[in-house]
Amino acid sequence: MAEEQTLGELLARYGISRRALLKYATYIASLMALPPAASTAMAEALAKARRQSVIWLSFQECTGCTESLTRSFNPTLENLIFNLISLDYHHTLQAASGTAAEAARLTAMKENAGKYLLVVDGSVSLAENGAYSTIAGITNLQMLKETAEGALAVISVGTCAAFGGIPHAKPNPTGAVPVSEVITDKPIINISGCPPIAEAMAGTLAYLIAFGKPPELDHLNRPKAFFGESIHDRCYRRPFYERGMFAKSFDDEGARQGWCLYELGCKGPVTYNACATLKWNGGVSFPIQSGHACLGCSEPNFWDKGGFYRPLSTATGTSGAWIGGAALAGAAVGAASAAMLRARKKSSTGEK
Amino acid sequence: MTPEARSPAGSLRTGVAQAVLSEIALLLENLAATGQAGAIDLRSLPLTEADRAELEEHLGRGEVEARLAVVGASEVWETAYAGVWWIRHLGAEGEIASETIAVTRVPEILMTHPADVEAAAARLQELIMLRRESAIGEETGNG
User: Fold this and answer.
1) What would the pLDDT profile of B22-63 be if each residue is shown by its tens digit?
2) Which of B1, B100, B113 sits opposite A26 (nearest CB)?
3) Which residue, A203, A227, A251, sits at the end of a domain?
4) Closest by Cβ to A282, choosing from B39, B40, B93
């Protein structure tokens, strides 16, 4: 449950100093590209804030989003976020089960009415009145509606909750939709990715707790701090793209030399996420650095875009966008990708 | 194709270090003139490892170095230019979680927060009380 103590008092009880909070705020401010001076303001705001009640609902999902957030579980800088929130309901992580678990959700909803954050991972099934996915005898649809009613805001983590994701892929037998198609009267923040980057989830939560408002969002309601630039913009292989040097297969000389993976289907130019900068597994690597093209997992309809290994210069299926037969070199490709980006910015989520 | 260009870490000098040096110089002049502190977030800049090394080499090391054990390790040192501090926070795997050049008289991370002072004073009083009670207990037991 949310507590009356401030986070500063609570952390002091755990032996976590204000210096630790300042270090954490510096880390988050750096992640979110806030001015360095913002870290002091953030640390002070966090110290004065109350522990934030969070209800986490998991619907049509694979638990990868939860895995991403909780994977490293040492008392480290990266997971200090768990001291800032009171995770009042999460049916995978909580010790309680059955009636006791549901009672915890209902109690949190009552005690923190209008103040709790609702985190959702997974899409929502609408077919057959949502009968395809139920928890504790009620459909995901019903649980989402009743829990969202008293929420301060909704955070859709993962591409399934944000845009429908894999359950939404053709032929979508369960009628899966994103949270935003069910809940239309609450602020919604989308943190997409399959799974999303842990730092993007933690940073957004910390910002919300410190400043009581969402960070700046893009046209798909994603925090610009993490989704403001494309993978391609920040890719270390970009110089090869500019010079028209492309790997033609996964084991040719170009691939061994680390050339651009555009022709092998890389969706980096049309994918907005922070993989190329924050990377994965504590900053070790990201798919392109490991030799595989970007799948575009943080974008709507990524599963139905005509094939992971088909270059962007061929038809992309659902969007109808087509980048014609320009030679895959230098400026021509740059112009084509720019055209595609413009098309993307004009389009809506496209998840109908 | 140079081998450097293949490396994601990048051992190429891109010129960013020179630009950062100029910015530090401006911040330092401002600190001297007005006392106003400033900072540069190095993580937000496209620094290659070679750029970082170049910057570190130019700034050098000054009189103060500190290692912090605060939710993981941190390294803080004053560079050869008084008032220019390098602050490096490390994450769980020892990777750089954040890295800042602070242009200030003392970096905030080194100063003790008043709330921590208050908590420490209370804890110390508690220890003194416990020691006193324990001494009384021993005396009573001996008597």
Assistant:
1) 999 999 999 999 999 999 999 888 788 899 999 999 999 999
2) B100
3) A227
4) B93
